[in-house]
Amino acid sequence: MTLQELKSKIIKDLTPTSPSPKLDAEVLLSYCLGFSKTELLLKRDYEIPSDKENWLRDATARRASGLPIAYITGHKEFYGYDFIVSPAVLIPKPDTEILVERAVDVILSMMDARGENLLTVCDMCTGSGCIAIAVAKTLLEDERVPPEQLPKFTLADISEPALDIARRNVAELLGKSLANSASLDNSLVLSRFNFVRTNLFDAITDAIKYDVILSNPPYIPHTMVDELLRDGRSEPRLALDGDITLEGDRALAPDGSGIPADDGLAIIRNLIPQAQAHLAPRGTVLMETGEYNAEAAASLAEAAGFNTEIHRDLEGQLRVVEAWIASSLRSSQ
Fold it and tell me: How many Å apart are CA 200 and CA 197, to the nearest integer?
C-alpha cells in the first residue's frame, strides 16, 4: 500500500472519533516512517513496508479507541522540546507554557539580585518533568546564565512511574543533548537534578527551603475528571483529580456540610501551607490552576499570608497563580 492510500484510510477510520483525523494521520505516519511533513507530500507513492503498515493499522485502532496520539508515539513537544511521555504522566499542554515563561523571568530576576549564590527550585507534582526541564534548558540557552549558575532542581512526585519518566527526560534533554556541547558540562548540569518520591512535601525535611516552588498539581473537579476520562482521554486520574485527600480518599466540602468536594481545590488547600513552610525568604510560588478555580486558589493563598497575582494562558484564561509572602521583596516583573 502506498503512503497516500494508507493516509486516506487512516483519515477515514479516525473521522468518526477524532477531532483532527488528518493531523493524527500525519503525525502517525511521520513518526512511524521518520518522514517530515514535506516528505509526506513528496513521497505519496512510497510503498510502505509491511511491518510499518501493521504498526500504523494498530496505532490507528488505538487512536480510534480514544488513546491520545502522544501515548501512542511516546513523545510530546512542549516549549519547543521533545518529551518522553507514557500513560503514567499527564501529556504536557500548551497552557502550562505560561508557567515556564514566568518561572524563567522570576529566576533570572532572583539571579540578578543574589549574585553567585545558587538558587533552589522545586517542581512539585513534576509528572514528566516538563516544567523544570523546560525552565532549565531555557536558562542554559540564555547567554546571561553561566552553566555553573544553573539552579538546583528538585523534581518531586507521588508516583514512582512518573519519576521514572522525569528521569528519562532529564537524561535525554539535559544529558545526551548536551554531551556534544563544547560550552556545557552535561555532568555538571545533571548533578543539579534531584528526584524525590513524596506525597506533596511529606518526604522533604522541614529544613529544606526553596527559592522557587513550581507546581502543576491535580486541580480538576472530581465530576469533571469523570467526564474527561469517559471520553477516552486515558490520562492518570491521580494527576487530574484535585478533590482527593492526602490519604487518597474523596475530600469533603470545606463548608462542613459533609458532601463530597467538587471544586478541584482539595490538593491545593494542602499544597499552599506546605509550600509556604518550604519557601525561602523572598521566595515565589508559581502554581497552575483551572480557569474556573484560579481566583479561589489565589484567595486560599492570600488567606495563608501570601500576596498573589494571576497570569493568563495563551487563550487568555486565568491559569497561573503567583504567590509571595507579603513581607518579602517582590521579584521584578
Answer: 9
**pLDDT band of 333, cuts 50, 70, 90:** very low
Q: pLDDT tens across 134-150, in order?
A: 999 999 999 889 889 99
Quickly tell me which residue has 531555557 as its cell: 138
- Mean pLDDT (whole number) for 157-182: 87
Q: How many CA atoms lie within 13 A of 272 on its CB side?
A: 25
Q: Residues 314, 94: contact at Cβ < 8 Å?
A: yes
